[in-house]
Amino acid sequence: MKKIRNILLIFCVVCLMAGCGKEPATGENVYNIYYVSNSENKVEFHTYEASGTEDAEILEELVECLSVMPEKLEYKAPLAMGFTLQNVELQDGKCQLTVSKDYKNLPFTTEVLVRAALVRTLTQIDSVQYVGISLEGESLMDSTGAPVGWMSAEQFIDNDGNEINTYELGKVKLYFAGHDGTHLISAYREKRYLSTSSKERFVVQELIYGPSGQVEGLYPTIHPGTQIINVTTKDGICYVNLSAHFLTAVNNVPVEMSIYSIVNSLVELSSVNKVQILVDGKIPDTFSQSLYERNLDIVKTLEESLASVLEETEENTE
Nearest to residue 35, comparing CAs of 77, 83, 80? Predict the structure, then answer.
């Protein structure tokens, strides 16, 4: 890493001074480099044109850009904020950043912004789907003491393409499909969501994103092309209005199972008792009812689901 830093230091500084702007990245080999504002209350990006063509070369350049403080101190480089980057490793779509334990000294809000800047920048590379941070080999923990794990760009959604606003920490219980689509499995997810968004909308959006990939045996229940038109809650009833993609089955999961994936997840919130799901503003004729309540009869534990998979496999081999 020292060799990489020395080779690219001068080159990257020049590019940052001459090539940074406020427009989203466009064109071949042009990337958004995310930085922390001087006030440490938002993340902003500046465009950068990479000279390398291979993903490994581009990764080196972007990491260097994230490490260099600008001469005019207009913003803060996320990898130059009081801790040291010790190693960068990319394997199977996962980019692992190892940093010194000084990282723990970052203020709570600043640390979230640093993470957002790193993940949003590096996941623009085709071969990088997830970014992880370890502290000299130890797992990075969140405020509750749970491992942060691998992070994707979707965990840090910017509101207008120019800055990432304040996020709230949300820990929710989501219901995804089992291997054959005939039952649901619950899984907890802790993630930061935009403070201007409701927790109900956050839950639905996370279901659309699907399982994180960190837990085997969980499958999506909602077509990824589904758009959220509106989510509102009144008198304990959550009204969810989705685009027509919701009616398109994913992984052979029946629509009714997709419905209860949303219903069971939303009813876990203290503000929701029942759920009504609309598609393009209407209740489809194929829905069995207009107002849904929690249904735990279709829920299995992950252990039960995996055990049934093993049983089916053994039966098929006999």
Answer: 77
For residue range 48-104, what is the model confidence (pLDDT) as tens digits?
Answer: 999 999 999 999 999 999 999 877 778 999 999 999 999 999 998 999 999 999 999
Residues 216 and 286 in one domain: yes
How is residue 243 written in tokens? 């685009």
Mean of the per-residue pLDDT values for the chain?
A: 83
Strand-pair category, 237-242 with 274-279:
parallel
Cα-Cα-Cα-Cα torsion 99, 102, 103, 108, nearest 10 degrees, comes to 170
Same domain for 275 and 312: yes
Residue range 115-121: average pLDDT? Answer: 92
Average pLDDT, stretch 186-194? 80
d(CA 133, CA 115): 8
> Same domain, yes or no, for 28 and 148?
yes
The verdict on 231 and 85 lying in the same domain is no
- Please report the pLDDT score of residue 40 as a whole number: 84
Count of structural domains within the chain: 2
In sequence order, the 6+-apart residues with CB closer than 8 A to the CB of 271 are 199, 200, 233, 236, 238
**Containing structural domain, residue 124:** 2-164
Alpha-carbon distance of 88 to 98, in angstroms, equals 6
Q: What is the pLDDT of residue 194?
A: 62
